[in-house]
Amino acid sequence: MSEPKVVIIIPSYNGVDVTYKGQPVLKHCLGSLKKTAYRNYTILVSDDCSTDSSVEYIKKNWHYVNITRRRKNGGYAENANTGLKYALANMKFDYAVMMNNDIIITEPDWLGKLIRLAESDRMIGMAGCNLTYPNGKTQGNVIHFRDRFSLRTLGKSEAGPHEYKEIREARTISGAIQVIRKETLDAVGVMDTNFINGYDDEDYCIRVREAGFKLVYDGKVSAIHLQNLTLKNTNSKVSTPSNRTYNNARNGFYFLRKHGAECGYWRLPIWYGLYFFNAFISVGGQNGESDFSKLGFNKGFWFNLRSVTKALVDSFRLQIRS
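Structure (tokenized):
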């Protein structure tokens, strides 16, 4: 029996200029994929109109990698959709793996295990794995299990460490690595581009479940995720320091309005309040984890307040148009 055909789609922006330990994140990501034991896969990098030498770098060093390039920088969802649409139109595959360009593969059988898991039940529409920081600590705020739900902006996982080593059904799976069945894509479609660099993966997970598919997480499979490293790139037209506050708030407000029943309507005033709270107060922490012992006053709180207020108004407009 032949292995299912897989296309690994890597949305990328300035993957050469963004570095980790002095090396481009694309080198870490594409280089680590070489150790993959599963053989029936191809790689497609969807470049979001990078301003660095990403495309030339890939062509020179990774000649077997397929590339599609956007003419305009559009953010993660737009770029991911470009890759998905290209693959759907030009490639034959059974599964698409959405992978951030700041992923480092550490286990040769990572893909084989996830494909075998997905193949075990035709109703598994998406599979995911355990994501860790480079220090080996689990990124507990990126997976939400089937019986629990919290928004990522709360910055705290509700699950215990032991639960991340199990195979179990999930509510959401991080977009850093998502193994998506082709039938799922046919039924659900592509990402909602109203989201700009945030919440697009959680939104997609909810839509997958609403279409009747399961999301399953295998905590025995791990990969390193250099979480939020690429968002620190200040060259992106859609993710500059000046508009990141606005984008994050607008994404959150739109998500809450779109999925209020999923989140719990009674929680909405709390989450709305948190965005305005964050306009005034900064929370310390490292590696994506909040440290509330390091609270501080935002010097640019008037700018943040205007950004969050505008985001709230615009989220209402988005919902009406959608």
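The domain at 6-231 is CATH 3.90.550.10 (Spore Coat Polysaccharide Biosynthesis Protein SpsA; Chain A). The CA atoms of residues 258 and 313 lie 14 Å apart.
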